Amino acid sequence: MKIKRYKKVNKHLNFYVNNFGFRHPYQVLVDGTFCFAALNNKVNISDNIPRYLQGELKLLTTQCAVIEMENLGSKLSGALIVLKQYPVHKCGHEGKPIVASKCLLSMLGNCNPNHYIVASQDRDLQNNVRNLVGVPLLYLHGKTPVLEQPSKVSVEAAKDNLGGISMSERQTIEKLKLENGMVSDNRDKPKKKKKKGPNPLSCKKKKKQSVEGKVVKSGDRKVKRQKVRIPEHVREVLFNKKT
Ligand SMILES: [Zn+2]
Fold first, then answer.
1. Which of 29, 57, 177, 232 has the least CB density, counted as fewest CB within 10 Å?
2. What is the pLDDT of residues 13-28, one digit of tens each?
């Protein structure tokens, strides 16, 4: 079971490495809900999550996430202590803190240029992350960390973004190839061959068949007709027998 889980994680992480330029050490953006769940399930984030993701991590948070936890009171003080361990990335809301889930979303932008992995138990934030391209989602299922499989949006974007090359980049590459005659040669030759190829061959076959057929058949018919022609004396005999 464990090996299967690690293979899954590797597969998902490789998807982001190959299609969206993720590199070690991965940056994991953690919020208070994740710390709270980890504490309740006795999961040591800084031990378990790097082991699960099989590599060095930078666990990070934002000032807004910390302030939100502070405002939620003493019940969450344990989770707050965990969250405060992590370096704070600038979110642009300094002095004017906003809701943590919105703050984390603002850190991701449209296409997650800083390659964050989002670690959160917040359902709304999770749903919003699933609608973004190239954002891995990490959460705890009980004690078990889960890196969710890439969302449909990300998979579809990856199809148009093979090997980190965008569609427009691929188009310019194809244009350059055309200008240098690399593509045009390859494309024109088979077309010309196709046009020239089938016609003469088909004509030859038809000619052979038609010529042979006519000659042989006509010859056979003539021969057969000649054979069928019965000499007169034989006819007489045959007629005599019949009559
Ligand atoms: Zn913020």
1. 232
2. 999 999 999 999 999 9
The amino acid occupying position 138 is L
Taking Cα atoms as reference points, which of 48, 54, 85, 90 lies closest to residue 69? Answer: 85
CA of 178 from ligand 1 middle (Å) equals 48
Question: How far, in Å, from the CA of 30 to the mean position of ligand 1?
Answer: 13
User: For residue 74, what are the CA distances in angstroms to 22, 31, 79, 127?
Assistant: 37, 17, 10, 28
173-219 pLDDT per residue, tens: 666 776 676 654 444 444 444 455 555 555 454 444 444 444 444 44
Residues sharing a CB contact under 8 Å with residue 118, sequence separation 6 or more, in sequence order: 28, 29, 104, 108, 125, 129, 135, 136, 137, 138
Report CA(122)–ligand 1 centroid distance (Å): 16
Instruction: Tell how far the Cα of 147 is from the centroid of ligand 1, in angstroms.
Output: 24
CA distances, 156 to each of 145, 150, 178, 183 (Å) = 25, 10, 28, 27
Ligand 1 centroid from CA 142, angstroms: 28
CA 105 to ligand 1 center in whole angstroms: 9
- CA 209 to centroid of ligand 1, rounded, Å: 83
